[in-house]
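User: Predict the full complex structure for these chains.
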Amino acid sequence: MSIENLKTYDPFAEADEEDSGQTKQTQEYIHIRIQQRNGRKTLTTVQGIPKKFDAKKILKVVKKEFACNGTIIGDEDSKMGDVIQLQGDQRAKIKDFLTNKDDGLGLDAKTIKVHGF
Amino acid sequence: MDSEEPSIQRRTSRKSVAFTDEKLVVDADGSVTMVASPTDEIKETAQSHSARTPPLSAALGAFTDASQATHDAQDAAAAPAADDGLDLSLMKKKKKKVKKEDDADAAAADAPAAEGDGAIDLTMKKKKKKKVAKEDDEFAKKLEALNLEGKEGEEATPEEDEQDGDMEQGTGIWAHDETKTITYNPLLSRFFALLSQKNPDHASTGTRSYKIPPPQCLREGNKKTIFANLPEICKRMKRADEHVTSYLFAELGTSGSVDGSRRLVIKGRFQQKQIENVLRTYIIEYVTCKTCRSPNTELSKGENRLYFITCNSCGSRRSVQAIKTGFSAQVGKRRKMQG
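Assistant: Here is the predicted structure of the two-chain assembly.
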């Protein structure tokens, strides 16, 4: 019988790479925002998709799936990274897409923040 | 457990921020009057908050009712006077409800009951029984719980008053030398009954929702929305107007200004419900204390340009994120070409 608390684990050791990367990713939220255009038209912007995903490919899939147009806005000067901009209110759909494990990105829902009304 | 679970579930899933059902009327001189306009959704929440404790104690009263009806007068006499007085006051309240069909001697029966002695005559007992039956819908939840419990409990009897005895007087299954295993549900209901009885303010403050007046939205022209009672809401939340304003703008992805009478003019068309949603998230993020869920907090700029929320009721302190606008796409006219 082993004592649970006395594992051979050094709490002062440097956290390994995998671990720190994971915690960093959880702090970096993915922001899904909505913006009003003229009339009842809206834009959805997705900001902060992890770098390991190709924004272009995501956009291609998403455009087909949501039947909407969209674009990638590269903000080199600011540190926002690539922003995917979609036409219409796609917040719920894009959130589903980002969290879906089977045919989505399979991200953790906690990292996603949906803004707007 | 399963019978108690729905209510607990409801308590957690319920919106922690509710908007008052009163219609707010702001006079010209700035005085605010509230006109009640019942809305079913809000009323439901209000009911569930304010009446959280009474049902428990009322249920307790119901238990004692039933047991008193079945148990002999000796038990009632043995009951501590203080406890009895509490119960009977509740009974009296209930009695008032059914008094219209009761005859005059109910009032006569009331008087000894209020004194809390064991001299309860038979007619009164009968009435009590009737009352329990009458208030069936009110205690439907409780009864359902008992029924469910009776279904799954092995040795628990289906009869309500036999099963749970009188927890006040220590009879039935609550007797000191009773060896029968008490099932979870009566124990749970006893716990809550005692809890609400011993410290009534504790239960009521813990579950009350935070109410702010509903935002008033007017349309200015075709493209702007006026948020009329922002200063009042901010005062209620004890937050700076600018902070709330910047949060609103960041969340709605728009801009705006404050007009002469301190109303907020937001660019874009927004409905009251949408503003409400944003305010709700604001309150969850920046007003309520995460530890004790009390809205009695203060937002202050601490050292290092960080914002801190200090709770006035539990004293906890936590940092909150600064409001960030994030990316906002170019809408409307094209940006002027650089260079």
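Residues 1-15, 22-136, 152-161 of chain B have pLDDT under 50 and may be disordered.
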